[in-house]
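User: Hello, can you help with two protein structures?

Assistant: Certainly.
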Amino acid sequence: MSESETTQPGPLTGVRVLAFTQIVAGPFAGVVLSDFGAEVVKVEPISGEYYRNVAAVIPDHGKRWQSLNRGQKSISVDIQDPKGVGVIHKIIKGFDAVVINFRPGVAERLGIGYEDLSKINPRLIYCSITGFGPTGPWANEAATDYVATAFSGLVAGDGKTDDNGVPVGMVPSVADYLTGLASAGAISAALFSRDKTGLGQKIDASLLNSSLSIQDSFVMREPASDSVYRDPMMQRVKESFAKGIPYKEVLAERVKYRQQSAGLPRLYYGAYQTMDGAIMLGCLTPKTRDAARLGLQMTHELTDDESFDPDDPKYQTQVEVWKSEITDRVKQQSTEYWLAELRAVGCPVAPVQFPEELADHEQVKAMGVMVPLEHPVTGPQEVVGPIVQFSSTEARVQGPSPLIGEHTNEVLLNGGFAEDEISELSTGGVIR
């Protein structure tokens, strides 16, 4: 019997999710849940979600919107209208979970907050995605990915500036996608908990919390080490800003402090330009650094000697000399040359590639990551498939992104509405 014949339905098959989502974080949570087998029904305004037409070549079907909403259904309901809220209240009985990324207080004002919906469906899992969390002085502030990653330190930590010396936002939307992924995982965990307790619950996810979670030691407080590196660095940063020193120069000071303990690992954990592109070295251990030295034909001996002190200025100077030597050497050969040389000796290395070229890469093709779809408006496409695969249960793309309100009648009929009620709501502009 083939693997396909033994594969069981997705692990979330039978789970129904009502999604009040927009832009990135919420829709991406919907993508992950859909790929795992859940029926995800997206609630859109009568005219469709705003993000449909961002950078859209074909109206209402922008490429990014399609990728973030594939495999989901669409119902078009005016939730600003009390009759539209009534529609939600009636159909929510048939759903297991809600995912919503509105600012705090908006859902409650509309009558679709956790307290409103859980009274109707006590087993409901309700995941609220916000920028800064549900409490605190910033809770009600508007937040996009750029805003949250700037606030969280991720942008400064990334260290990129534009021609004017000011910070550059991160691409792709790290906080958005991470929060969407975390939300999908939290909903799955809450469903597991419900199977044991019979109780629904509310989940609070935020762009800020997600951004902090991936910065571990940069955010962590530990007086024993902070007194050596963090505290002097932050004092220097504050003094520099107070003097009006440009951001780019202050950032360089921070980088200097952060690199004080990097020493030799910094030589072999980073990118170098080749004759026709760039390579990235990923050597975190003495063994892999030895491999890098061998592949790059470096002859220095101090590397992992116990007497080597990366905090000693004389060694810092030597490290910079070696780094310059490697830089000049790598530029003299092609990317393929260095990949062959370094991989042959066991050095972790990869070409630095553009995302636009990955769909055609032999490794991506071999993994079966790209999934062909046929969209009724935009035609044939290939999308990035499920983020993980299971050995026994199926994870798959359930279909392309939906048309505006494509599934309104279907979902309302299944939710207990009669055809004449649906017709009346449609005529009144409450649904589409």
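That covers the first. Now for the second protein you mentioned:
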Amino acid sequence: MIFQINKIISVTIILTLLLSACHNHTEGDGHNHGTAEIKTEAKKEEHHEEAPATIASLTAEQIKTVGITFGNIENKELTATIKANGNLKVPNNNKANATSLYGGVIKTLNVQIGSFVKKGQRIATIANPQFIQLQEEYLSTGSKITFAEQEVARQKELNEGNAGAKKNLQSATADLNSLRTRRASLQQQIQLMGINPNNVSNGNLQSMLVVSSPISGTVSNVFAKIGSYVDVSSPVAEIVDNGSLHLDLNVFEKDLPMLKVGQTIHFTLTNNPTTEYDAVVYSIGTAFESDSKTIPVHCNVKGNKTGLIDGMNITAIVSLNNVTSPAVPTEAIVEADGKYYIFIKTNKEPEEHHEEGEEGHDHKEAEKGKEAEPKNTSNFEKIEIIKGVSNMGYTAITFVNDIPKDAVIVTKGAFFINAKLSNTGEHEH
């Protein structure tokens, strides 16, 4: 009995050991195979990893269609500047209204808004029966003066012969002087009407009054129209001499100590930020504007004034020093993965990428495709930069790596090239 129990225990122990051995062998086998597979996959992934594409190729047709433009690195005064808003103004002594000294009906208008006129040029004509009456009175007064002169001469002869009373001579002389004064007054009025008194005759009475421009300049407004009545207080048109444009800036208190008379101001129009103009500070205000709490700074516009009109709103950049920096148009810069880039023309060829295991037929096909590519293409290299301050449509840049001094950069269309480069990289992987 004891022998049988021991035999059973021995068999049980042997079975247990066998089962344990089988189990350990299976687990170990699985573990080892899994590790091998992971390592193999990692090697494959590592093998397929490639550097990001940095060179894109575009045909001449693509460049034309997208509207890609080119330029060079420029030096711009973009550092140490302050911004200010303001508007253009013409001094009152460079503005004038064309008015009539007499009321009347507008018969002709010879100008329109935007017309350039010279001093004395006809603006309009006005009709009024009073004009004829003044000329008639002028002619009549001349005739009366002739008669009065004859009467004075006759009274002098009588007085010398003691045949006439002295008071009659005095009365005739007074009448003559009064008529001469009246004729002088009428003569001045006729001249102010634009009529030469020497040309006034019974057969040449003018019914039209000429309204002339008092200064040379541009017609900024026309207040009258044909057939309307204007009086002395109603201007016919406004003329502005834009050759003496001033720039009035609104500068905050914190920026005022950095400004001085003679300082150069660069400004652009609010509705045209691409064209830059210059002005020079000639006066700095001493009191705050009530609404904006800013101090007015007055400047003379210098150089080109084409397109500048009284009342236009502007944005100004005040250069505080002469420090310049390399700069490119702001739209030439693209952002990718938290970094900034520009594109330059290059002779480098785009990188070639091949899929794993495709070194045979596919490689030959790629070579054939390469031969079939059009030769009229341009290559562009993606260059990393560091952005600086941006003003007036330009941004200061610093290159991470050196580039050729005569590098041609893409000033417009960089976004398209970057998108094409990104799409190409995705397809290659």
